[in-house]
Every structure is written in C-alpha cells, then in structure tokens.
Design goal:
It is built from 2 helices and 9 strands. It has 131 residues and is of the alpha+beta class. Strands 1, 4, 6, 8 and 9 form a 5-stranded mixed β-sheet that branches. The radius of gyration is 23 Å and the shape is elongated.
C-alpha cells in the first residue's frame, strides 16, 4: 500500500510539474536598425566622407528599460551594419541610447511592446551633433 501511494504521489508531482512548465510564457524579440545621423558630413583631407563602422556603433550602445519603473533590462550594441536583435519576455519597454543626455546625443526614446512568439521592429535614429 505504501508503494502504491508513493507511486501515485510521484505521478501527481510529475503531472503538476509538466503543467507548470507548459504555462510558461514564450518570449518575443525586438529588432531594428540604429541610424547615426551627422547633420553635416565631415569630409576628410583625401576628399572621402567617413562611413560608420562597428566601432562607431559601439560608441552608442542601446539600452532597454521597462516602461513602468524605467529599470534597465538589458543593453545591446548594434552590429557593423547598425542592426540589433534582442530576446525579451512579453511586456512594455523603452529603447534608448546609453548616456544620451551626457553625450549630448539627440534622439527620441522609443516605446514598444513585446508579444510572445512575435518580433517587433523598433528603429532608432540619433543625431550625434558632430559637425
């Protein structure tokens, strides 16, 4: 009788655990493009206009905050083409540039919502003010 109850109890625990695991909410993605704008392109001595590189994008990491408490959730650096992609749990967020005010970078924080198993596209345009 003891073993019968023990086996029944184990089966019950396994079933409950499986139900809880299946109730987990799947994450979604946010992806987009960081566009760095310079109002007046700088022309180098050799007559070429500089292009943005991976190093340039690394100077402007993006931060993702939750909308409610403005708490940083994660940060991401755009790749050498200015693209980024982040896995996030469903919820409401804000995309901003780290140190935007301190670096005197002009840009508007972008509000967005992540939905389970979906991708939301959020592009960010910033003006570095470099003239």
């Amino acid at each position: 009788m003891f073993f019968k109850n023990l086996i029944a109890g184990c089966i019950f625990v396994v079933l409950i655990g499986g139900t809880a695991a299946s109730d987990a909410v799947a994450p979604g993605f946010v992806e987009g493009h960081l566009k760095i704008i310079s109002p007046t392109p700088v022309e180098l001595a050799d007559g070429n206009t500089p292009t943005f590189t991976a190093e340039t994008y690394s100077e402007y990491p993006l931060i993702i905050l939750n909308q409610k408490e403005k708490k940083e959730i994660t940060r991401v650096t755009a790749d050498r083409n200015g693209n980024y992609r982040v896995l996030l749990p469903p919820g409401d967020y804000v995309l901003d540039v780290q140190g935007r005010a301190r670096k005197h970078v002009r840009g508007k924080p972008q509000f967005f919502t992540v939905v389970s198993n979906q991708t939301v596209v959020v592009d960010m345009d910033i003006d570095t003010g470099i003239r």
